[in-house]
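Give me the fold.
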Amino acid sequence: MLKKLSDSKNNTMKKNSVLLLLLVLNYFNTFSQKEYAFGKPTAEELALKTYKLDSTANAVVLFESANTTFSVGNHHIMVNTSFYKKIKIFNKEGFKHASFAIPLYNDRDNEEYVKDIQGITHNSLSKTILKKSQIFEKRVNDRWREVKFTMPNLKEGSVIEVMYTIKTPFKFNLTGWEFQSDIPKKYSQFSALIPGNYIYNRSLTGYLKLNVNDARIVKRCFSVPGFATSSDCEKLVYAMENIPAFEEEEYMTARENFLSRIKFELSKTVWFDGTKRKYTSTWKAVDKEFKTDKNIGGQFRKSSFFKNKIPTEITLLNSDLEKAKAIYTFIQNHYTWNKKYSIFKNVNIKKAYENRVGNVGEINISLINALKFAGLKTELVLISTRNNGFPTKLHPIISNFNYVIAKVNIGDSYYFLDATNKLLPFGMLPFRCLNHYGRAMDFKNESYWIDIVPSKKSKTKLYTSLTLNEDGTITGKLRKVKFWHDALNRREAIENYSEDDIISDFEDNYDNLEVVNYTIENKTDIDKPLIETFEILIDDINDTETYFLNPYFGERFTKNPFNQKNRLYPVDFGYPRTYSANIVLHIPESYKIHSFPEPKSVVLPESGGSYKFLTNSSNNSLILSSTVKINKPTFFNFEYQPLKEFFKIIVNTQKTPIEIKKL
């Protein structure tokens, strides 16, 4: 009995040992990244006709990976990243995913290069090898080159494989990884073996979750000749599977804000001899650095340059607000923007002033200096434009910013200013700048984050009065009044148009419509609303017993901008907006209004917006009143379904015409 117990105990210990070993092996198998077999697609992959998770896809990434390691060579520490990608091409529309462009960076002393490019196109039982003669390199500019190639012998149903290695001496921004692209992916993986000498900040953007998120320490994996000690390394594996294609929709900021990807930024280095160097700074240190920088701080201190430039009548104005407006208009009219965004280099206020042409930095820092010279407290605000992505608030990453604006403080109020556009009213920023927040600094006090909030709502008002005459013609008057961004958009659209051009453009959108008279008010007076009045004649409705009239004349939603079943990222309108229409239709006794849209009233949750459509009819007239309000610039993904239904109701109501029958 004791023996059996002992035997049982031994057996249990053996079983437990085996179980422990299996668990350990399972851990390392789970941790280790998936591997690929280059040149050996499966029969299932070759026979695949569609991707079951997205039957509309023109192509799908079957497997892709990137593996980064560090090595020593040519007196440099090199970062080597080996890439592999296998793609199934379903149709000719998917052929574009068989073209590759590899960007390579260089400075004055060092350069990146690509090696070991290999590619195979598989078609059923045949395969075509990518030749070296099909690979091309071109110089993009003094800092970038590009290696390009397209896979050969493409057919519908091809499976392509590509692999190559990029070697770079630039360790400041470790190659990150985009898990998501504009086609779906079955599996995407990034792995790295990073020496402990290099400490990186890392961040995962996007709404998709990692299926593999593992890290472990590998002992003494990295050494450099001349140093006796070795460094431990961090082994990372990040992976996602069944990744949907990224689809851009209406009203969103830069795709980089929402694309699922991993980013690395070098924080500091710790060398074998104990030497440390920090790369991630603090805002206090950045403020100090900018103060002495020749492009930002150096130009910021040149307010005295405008001593003899600002007209005397402006400096004598008593009101600070009027003085600020006058200086803004002076700078705005003096410069022409060259469409360049330079703020950290090539900023020369004196040269730009003389040439009357400048980049964003030159124009808006000139504005700041001119306001400061007039005794107005003015700060510089670093921002990132909407198409450039959000700047991170975790720590200073100066490359996140690509634009600069002014913030002038008057009494208890402040105004954001951008003088690059001659059609921008005082206190209004262009749409590209409405990207939530920026970093304000005056180089005397500590800089701080500030929200970029539009100061006014944009509005469009339509007033329509129409009369159906006994002879079947319709005569009437349309009055369109636009405020703030709506006015700016219209002014930009017709800036170089004559009145005849505007009339022709309007008439081209309608059959049998003639503009009898047209007037425009405040076309160049940008601080006032833009007002356009059209007197119209619609002819030839006598030829039909029933006539359909849509009375919005271009001021309506023709389609729902939100058509996805679900949405992962916010809806970003940029600014609040209101659209209203008041329509009056008079008819003679020989006609009858047979039908018209039904009244509607819809309110978005949390006072996000509203839609009211009211009607009032009699035998001889019909009055329609429509008001659409979007009360906030941003709606989050959990607010998407109500917003989608909201616009569906608006579109369906506004596309429903007034039906008029001849008695």
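The domain at 43-277 is CATH 2.60.40.3140 (Immunoglobulin-like).
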